[in-house]
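Mods, move this if it's the wrong board.
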Amino acid sequence: MKFIGLKGGLKLATAIIALTLAPLSFSQSLQDLRNDPKNAENVLTYGMGYNQQRYSDLLQINKDTVKRLVPVWSTSLGSNYGEQGQPLVYNGVMYLVNAEYTVAINIETGQQIWRTKVDWDPATPRVVCCGITNKGLAIYNGKVFRGTLDAHMVALDQKTGKQVWKTKIANWQEGFTITSAPLIANGVLITGISGAEFGVRGFLDGLDPETGKQLWRKYTIPAPGEKGNETWPKGDAYLHGGGSTWITGSYDPDLDTVYWGIGNAGPWAPGGRPGDNLYTASVLALNPKTGDIKWHRQIVPNEMFDLDAVWEWIVGDINYKGTTRKVIMHLSRGGFLYVVDRRNGELLSAKPYEKINWATHVDMKTGRPVESGVSKKVRAGEQIELWPGQWGAKTWGHAAFNPHDGLIYTNTTHASRLVKFEPVEYKVGQRYVGLQNSPAPRDPKEPIGHMEAIDPITAKAKWRVPLMDIPNYSAVLATAGGLMFTGKETGELVALDMQTGKQLWEYKTSSGINAQPITYLHNGKQYIAVQSGIGGVNVVRMGPQLKDIPRGGSVVVFALMDK
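Not the wrong board. Structure tokens:
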């Protein structure tokens, strides 16, 4: 890494920053965002492209050269809460977020250009379900956009970090938070929210990126008189029906359609909400200009285990029965891999990729999972061992899709829980779940998760690498160099051979990795970057195993050492 004496380093860094920033443009167009995957020198969108494929055609770092991959600089991000974000890169500057700060860094030197503190109410963490964190940001037309823990959306000047506007999205006291990255689609800034575990009524907001003014709001739980409300009981159940939108959607500019996964119903205990409960556990295809729903597909009607549809829906074109189909692909929390025609919502495939006992299969005529005897028992009031448990067959850490080999590369989880429903009463700002959720006996010879490559149509693994102690909570990056990059909670960034799953390289960072690696080109050289900093819900879930992992957020950047 580069280390420079403090006094001389500050002078040198200041000079370099001045030289680097002087000619830069700070304005990104919609066309720039659309072309993000084609411009290797920038990473302008969450998911490394609107399609959320997290795939790069760069191949300078490959199976032969990865042994020479070394860190070139590392910069502290100033937070102990944990790092789950995905950096963005534009014209020599890296932009990053966590729960406390928004940061701009010179990619030549690792020197901070500006850092802006997030002003959220210190009492907010009491209504945060799953970790004090933030997963990413958006940039457009000279501004940086991010959500805050107390449910505001903020725009900062990209050059200076100064606040341009701040818009209140919801009241955090009611259980609302924002931990996801916003999405710019056809000139509209779209944000989701968290809070289903506190009985919120979920929604998506479309904002004017210039002013922060709300352009539209689409509730994920329809009100009386709206299409879909007939799937809820009469009364006020819909007002506390959940339907969080806390993972960023994908976008197809050609179809001008946003695809957004919707979370669990509230409460988890389903006794007081008979019906399908739209649009929980669904994917919505939306018009970004208006928020209108073009079509929807619900994958779990009357969902009751938090095994919903909120994870990413990857846009891709695949061979299906001899023809190329435009699809979205989803590794559901419930263990089924969904392939859906993104033009009309037609279900093409829904096969299990992990151990499942809550359903026997998905009925391809209706698209509905067929509940097993195990689910019937829990509905009758019994305790069951649920596969997969609430961790899901896959965690939030995003998968990657290689458009050339047609495979999905991902981290998965292999774990069960003991669950039983219990009565629950809605109270503002308090958890609204109604479920006893306990650890299940675990065979130490069984893996707790895998790193794997999966065929989206068959849901069969081409290869699987077992994880025996701690599941991975990091996103995956796939590259044309034949490498799959991901991080471990114990701090290692690893590179696997995409054909075999064999580990070819690793580097242990100063804290745990549960963030999202990226790659980019600068001055003809390929770099890998990832945020490091243990945090998020898995620190609670696996506290004893992670108790010795140091806290402290940073970003680490890697490149090939010269021969």
